[in-house]
Amino acid sequence: MTTFNISLRNMKKSIRDYAIYFFTLMLGVCLFYVFNSIETQTTMLALSKDSREIVKLLVQMIGAISTFVAFVLGFLIIYASRFMLKRRAKEFALYLILGMSKRKVSAILFVETLMIGFLSLVMGLLFGVFLSQITSIFVGKLFEANMTKYSFVFSAEAFQKTGLYFALIFLVVIFFNTIEISRSKLINLMQAKRRGEMIRGLHPVIAVVGFFASIGILGYAYYLVCQNQENVTQKILTTAILLGVVGTFLFFWTLAGILVKFASSVKGIYYRGLNSFTFRQLASQANTNVIAMSVICLMFFFTICVLICSVNIKTAINGNVEKYAPADYMATTREKTYDAEKMLKLKGDIASQLEDSMSFRVYSGGFLMSMNDKDLVVDPKFQEIKKEGWFSYPIREAVDETTYNELAKYYGNKTIHLADDEYTVVSNYNFTGRYYDQILGSGQKLNLNGKKELKPGTKKHVEGEVYISSNADNIGIVVVPDGYYTDRDLEQEVIVAKYPTQSRKAREKMDQKLIRIAKKDLGAKAAYTRTKSEMADASIGLSAFAVFIALYIGCIFLISGAAILAIKELSESADNRERYRMLRKLGADERQINRALFAQIGIFFVMPLALAVIHSVPGMLFARCILSVLSGGSLVPAILITIVIFGAVYGSYFLITYYTSRRMVRE
Amino acid sequence: MEQLLRIDNIEKYYGSRSNLTKAVDNLSLSVNKGEFVAIMGASGSGKTTLLNCISTIDRVSSGHIFVGNVDITTLRGNNLNKFRREDLGFIFQDFNLLDTLTAYENIALALSIQNEKVKDMKGKILKIAVDLGIDALLHKYPYQLSGGEKQRVAAARAIITRPQLILADEPTGALDSKSARKLLRTMSDMNEKMGATILMVTHDSYTASYAGRVIFIKDGKVFHELNRGGATRKEFFGQIMDVVSLLGGELDDDI
Fold first, then answer.
1. Closest-CA residue of chain A to B121
2. Nearest CA-CA partner of A152 in A237, A40, A62, A232
3. What residues does each domain of chain A span?
């Protein structure tokens, strides 16, 4: 019989054993292709120029990440193939006893790896090509591009890249397998069965104390990030993360002891059916997999947060442009290039193009706000505030009351009224807004630029915009009474305009024209312009960027975690065959045995995920507070998408593991 | 005496029509309630196949096996599991204790598979443990026990469910002679004091001499039968040895 024939027969025989290996490979290939074919996927879309630039950047980024991903997948595949080797140790031992050379055995394995690799490559690419048809629709939606015409997407480049990377991975796998075979000893191969394992559980007292300590540590870490949201310093955050890691590790370290202690005290449950057996199995697994479970839990935590944040950024950002850019066009000069005459000319030129425009003056003169450990410090002279806290915001600009009210009317915001000796602050950034409320509420008096002293004219800050933007990023502009500042303090003038047309093409045309005029009138270097369409594209690009990178890394993390758990569980089941056979002899029903197996695998899979979900609640609360872009909009769609992704990938791994294990223990 | 086990002309073939091996060939025997019966035979004599058929791990090719009034060759699926669970107790050569459970939990498992009430378990287990002299070992794990201790725990597990029949497959096979003697005494106690019916398969004459009756099997057929009657164990051992030599030397694996 030729090597090829033996390999082929082995494959046929153990095709179901290979399920987990095959599935991981296929998913890896599929994802690799889909994400690397983004560039091709977008060619059929009618994208704006800015979006194209972002796609280019995205492609570069994905290329870089792909190298990392290839390493992760390579590691996973080597891990999976080592499991396969172990499982088949007896078969290899037989070959060796029959006098086959190690080289020949390696050759058999080589052909097998090649065949399974080729098969998974083909299947993965097929699924990848299919999936990329769907993702290209998704990409289109993300970039809000019109799908002018649908065409079949196939990326030769991604195809080649996937083929190349995985060929390399297979070479490494074959290399490792050969080493493994050549170093193995016949006696070890024949006695590959696990010898009666000593159960070195923790002392119950240590387990209980450690477990409650871990809960306490985790609780304190949650408390740190949630309760102190308003003044979380870098230091507190680092502490919380470290405590989280330590707590997670401690949790899984003591889990086994607690599981047995707790379960065996509830005798009604513990001694029902095969429960005592299942609990002990779980405990021994938890005991031997502390590090794996902790790391996987933290990986899932990261994945959940990143997925929810990125999907939410997309919904939040798209709404933000409408809200925070109440005009279509804005032109001004860059810092220290203000020239009154040139500005006057620009005003005239823009007025000749558009009826609906206005200009306003911005003065330099505000204050510096900083947070010490506890106190909010305000300094109108922009002097260094010594103790550095979590933030320190300079508010450099001011507008007068009449200007602000005209602008507010133009933007559709609320107008304000100030007395001669009053000031207030306009902002739309939640994070700093809170501090203005404190400053204004406490009646903090200011003498800006050494002029007469002003007292707060409102109890809270005024919610509103001065410049147009794609985000809530107005961190604060002071409003002073008319005449408080004179031309000497003038910083710049700003022109804002609204377009009469809403059609995308006409707007883009108008953008180009007005940008040209601004550059001509003010000088190419001095002119600074923003347009709503530009910002919309950029922010969509940003959100698309975030979503893609997060999905890519998230999926890879998810696959890695799930595959490692699955392989751990499968090798466990292989070792447990003897125990299940014993249960069957004792008269346990198939149903009881299946239920025990299901519970064992299910709980093993659920534990790291459950803790990760619990972690992600405070994680998301914190992220929501810090990333103001997340503050708008409900998290429900993002959470649903995350659940679907986890359900599909993790669920598949669970089912494959369960059915393969069930078959194994029946052997 | 009430008949508990009746084996009626059973046959068991292996292989295809063209190349047939008869492992059990038209064999009949019966065991009464409260008996301790040993089945002796060399390897390949069919004694393990016979035991597998009785324990429903294997199926007969023809013939019937009655336990009580039930023909167990007709049982299928869950009825089969139920029978195995409720009417049989097993003692295996390699102990077959679950190494993740303590001795107590191993014994309790046999009860909990039958959905026994938890509050009744403790009393039952403690009583059996005291009777079999393993009460000091209950909280230990199998790896902390010697072979003999393990096998006595396994015996406790086999009898705790009060099965109609206890099947023992070479129970002393993995034990040193001292532990073997202790275990066999335990099994005699189970038989005499607790009224357990035991069917034991062995190839060791010494082990067989603890039984009340010995059935010799050769080539799948009953070859001879010995009743202890009023004889002492030593005398009975002598009688067994005589039959063994008649059968052709030691009934060991290497003949």
1. A271
2. A40
3. 1-192, 201-272, 326-532
Within a domain: B105: no
| Site from A200, A264, A586 to mutate, B interface, most B CB atoms within 10 angstroms | A586
Give the distance from residue B104's alpha carbon to the nearest chain A alpha carbon, in angstroms.
11
In which domain, by residue range, is B192 found?
3-96+165-248
pLDDT at residue A53 in the model = 74
- Kindly report, residue by residue over B200-241, the tens digit of the pLDDT: 999 889 999 999 999 999 888 888 899 988 888 899 999 999
Number of domains, chain B: 1
For an interface test with A, the pick among B88, B91, B98 (most A C-beta atoms closer than 10 Å) comes out as B98
**Contact between A425 and A432 (Cβ < 8 Å):** no
- Tell me, yes or no, if B88 comes closer than 8 A to chain A by beta carbon: yes
Do B142 and B103 form a contact (C-beta atoms < 8 A)? yes
Cβ atoms within 10 Å, residue B60: 24
A267 touches chain B (CB under 8 A): yes
Tell whether B102 is covered by a domain: no
Query: Is the separation of the CB atoms in A317 and A542 below 8 Å?
Result: yes
pLDDT along chain A (667 residues), means of 10: 73 76 88 84 66 77 85 85 80 79 83 85 90 79 62 82 88 85 75 54 81 92 77 75 92 85 79 84 83 91 86 68 84 83 86 86 84 73 59 82 91 89 88 84 83 88 88 86 86 88 80 87 86 79 76 88 90 83 82 90 93 90 66 73 90 93 84
- Our CA angle for B238, B240, B244, nearest 5°, is 115
Which residue in chain B is spatially nearest to A591 when comparing CA positions? Answer: B78
Q: Note whether residue B153 is domain-resident.
A: no
Q: Measured between CB atoms, does A100 come within 8 Å of chain B?
A: no
CATH number, domain of B35, equals 3.40.50.300
- The chain A residue lying nearest B161, using CA atoms, is A586
Cβ distance A232 to A210 under 8 Å? no
